[in-house]
Amino acid sequence: MSRKVAVFGAGIAGLSAAHEFVRRGYQVEVYERNDSAGGFFRSARRDQDNLPTEYSWHGFGPWYHNTFDLLRQIPFDATSTLYDRVLSRPMDYAVVPDTADDDLDTADLFDKPQAFRMSTRDKLSLGWGILKVWSANARSKERYARANAAAYWQPRMTSVGHSTWRALFGPWIGSDWPYASLHHVGLFFGRNVRSGPSHHHPADEDGPAWAHEPLGGWSLLRGPSNEWWFDRWVADLDQRGVTFHWETPLDQLHVDGDRISGATVAPDTSVEADIYVLAATPFAAAHILARTPELEQEPELAKFRPLIQDGPHTQVSFRIAFGERMAWPRERTAIALADSAFNITLFANEQAWSSDVDLGRDVQSLWTGTACVSTVPGPMHGKPLRTCTEDEFLDEVLAQVYASEALDLMIRCANDGRRLRDFSILTTEVWHEWHFSPDGITPDQPKWVTTTNTRAHRPAQATSIANLVLAGAHTETEADIWSIEGAVESGRRAAQVFEPNVAVHAQHKPPLLRLTSRLDDGLHALGLPHVLDVVGVGLGAGLVRLATRAWPRRGTRRDEEPLSPRPPCTG
Predict the structure, then answer these.
(1) Which residue blocks in 280-428 are alpha helix, DSSP H?
(2) In sequence order, what are the beta bridge partners of 334?
(3) Of 119, 396, 431, 471, which is least packed with CB atoms within 10 Å of its CB?
(4) pLDDT confidence band for 558 (50 / 70 / 90)
(5) Kind of pairing, strands 365-371 and 344-348?
(6) In this structure, how many other beta carbons lie within 10 angstroms of the beta carbon of residue 261?
(7) Cβ count within 10 A of residue 282
(8) Which residues, in sequence order, are CB contacts of 53 under 8 Å at separation 6+?
(9) Which pLDDT does position 131 carry in this prediction?
(10) How many CB atoms are closer than 10 A to CB 255?
(11) Contacts of 536 (CB under 8 A, 6+ apart)
């Protein structure tokens, strides 16, 4: 008889664990508090106009090795997999300030690191700081993980270079700059610069076969996440025998000695299994564990309280729908508004999505955006995001979008001189689970991200309780970043506790940096300075050149395809 597994949480981590267990003959049941799968990546449609909406927009980086491997195992249709069909070609990310000088060429906004508005000294300071993270291991996890990245670079950069750099933390890393650590920022950019093996994709309606490579940009899904990923994944798991219980949250785990003896889910229903996978958010998990005090004493489970000490991350997703089709300078353009108080990032869904995806009634162009910083007052109402009403928040979003002369220039260049304000807005929308009140904005499902106080408290998947494992991007992974990749890896590692043959793909690190990391571990253990400080700036300068020489050259896309011919568009 097969053993039974109870998975609590149908986000990416929980589904990844269920995916591995059911393929090895286990009887799997998944319990989820929401009415659909996907967790923080799920999407929905509004009843009144069929407008697609989502918790937040997410990308797939070239270092998502476990994620891409998983997508290869899930069918899209009878002849292809999700990996073959659901990923867009990489986006071209523009760093867009508010001001637009007379000599600004919109191509410059895509040219990195030029678009960062940094001096030569700024770039050297940036490269040196990131390199010290890449070339260390224990020192970075223990020391740099407690250092605020924005504070580290502030005295080492010009004010303009520093403000532009920190404005990219939310759009690219997914963590607002008041809380992001030096370890987190350095690791993220290290993953993208030296991501390891390329991932090859077949030809599609957008062009010939292509490869997702180091510094090749980030892909998006080609349609709403539930319609293009999670619904198909759930259908495949259902066909394999997984049973799903929707709107059935976990209330309590019951312990008997060194084992979980059962669980209670709403409404007051008992669950018995041989293996239990806790794949809820860390906030939900902390509340669940508090109902069984003896579980809070277990070494890994005791980490949940300090893990959530900084509270949830407020990153609010919104849509702006237009009644006319709007063109962009590049085929797939993503925007980071570098001077916006709310750290706004956005893209036009129709650029990444398949042409047959419905954008909503009468909608011809649909922007999805995210406000990534909640503590800085906005210019319109003088309030930070976290204390705005919904109307005030949308006022701020539009004001900060319209304030960018450089964004307006991009729109004018691509639309025969028509300004952004010339395109009428049909509707604006905020993900329905955000609740605005004078006491502060709150979500139905709070989001966790790593902060300068929390990395040391990330639990392992295995616990001392023999039949309980943990899954989620908040657990300890080699990805070491709260991400889709971290969630998939954690689900695989949870299953690997019981099935050692579950494959987990390692993150790539160049041999030279592996060597410096080992050397620095020894120096760090002895309380000595960083290996680069010991060896000298000569080696460091060489490594900076090695690590940064692959920045995309102006005039090429990140995926190295030639740009479509387009005359330069200047102010």
Answers:
(1) 282-290, 293-296, 304-307, 349-352, 390-402, 405-414
(2) 93, 347
(3) 119
(4) very low
(5) antiparallel
(6) 12
(7) 25
(8) 43, 44, 45, 46, 317, 319, 429, 431, 432
(9) 92
(10) 17
(11) none
